[in-house]
Amino acid sequence: MIIQKFGGIAVRDSAARKHCIRHIIRGIQEHGRVIAVVSAMGRAGDPHSTDSLLCVSSALKETPHASDVAAACGELLSSAVLSAELAAAGIRNELLYGTRSGITSEGPFGAAGLRADPHRLLASLGDASVGVVPGFLGMGADGLIRTTGRGGSDLTAVVLAKALDADAAEFFKDVPGIMTADPGQDPDAEMIGSMSYSELVPLLSVRRPVIQKKAALYAARAQVPLHIRSYSGCDQGTWILP
Ligand SMILES: Nc1ncnc2c1ncn2[C@@H]1O[C@H](COP(=O)(O)OP(=O)(O)O)[C@@H](O)[C@H]1O
Ligand SMILES: N[C@@H](CC(=O)OP(=O)(O)O)C(=O)O
Questions:
Q1: Tens of pLDDT along 5-60?
Q2: Residue nearest ligand 2's atom 13 by CA
Q3: Which of 38, 175, 186, 207 to mutate to test the pocket of ligand 1 (most atoms within 8 A of CB)?
Q4: How far apart are CA 78 and CA 97, in angstroms?
Q5: Helices 153-163 and 213-222: angle between axes, nearest 10 degrees
Q6: CATH number among 3.40.50.300, 3.60.20.10, 3.40.1160.10, 3.40.190.10, domain 2-41+74-94+114-133+151-240
Q7: Fewer CB atoms inside 10 Å of the end CB: C or N, the chain?
């Protein structure tokens, strides 16, 4: 089994999602089963992105529970869309949300911790080769939706990789892999083929890190192999191995 995480850019539109579906097909061939974790579609300005949903009403800023439910709509919609497009491509899949995913979130709204119950997820998956999971959120024992902080779909992927003892967590980004610096800021940035967790963490204290720092720290503690790569290209990407 492999966990494949598709970020907001990777699922932005149907052309981008065709690349994601190709990665999922390859994932099935190479690893047997794929759990696809998705983020909300696009970035600020795109209608269903997290930023756009949080701007639907300024009142959301004052209401953390309602704000988390509004934000969760982005990942839920994205998972529904990818699941439907996989089915249209002839790939049977299970949409794993709410109690079906086995993911629980406890703690403050907007900054909750995540846990995964692998037995519950596997029972919902049945004999399907692909499960589609909305990242970034979970449900508490009280039945309330809580999100885990910006960039949190990365954390969902790593938590699932550990709980399911997956071969790796693969992240599909709008860059070819991890580079010596953010290529958007430094045109001379160079690709890094492989690195350790301790080399990765210092690169993540920037406004837009290549992977969420909380997720990278969790992966380091849990010794989850990470593979960061381009959603649209066929570059080798960057491996972070225990
Ligand atoms: N060292 C780095 N190497 C590569 N990308 C980096 C680095 N530091 C910051 N970034 C930024 O990380 C972003 C992560 O990719 P993105 O596709 O936005 O992720 P996601 O959609 O999964 O959150 C890139 O667009 C890039 O600007
Ligand atoms: N959609 C959430 C969670 C996330 O991880 O998104 P992305 O993978 O697009 O950074 C956010 O924007 O924070």
A1: 999 999 999 999 999 999 999 999 999 999 999 999 999 999 999 999 999 999 99
A2: 150
A3: 175
A4: 12
A5: 10
A6: 3.40.1160.10
A7: C
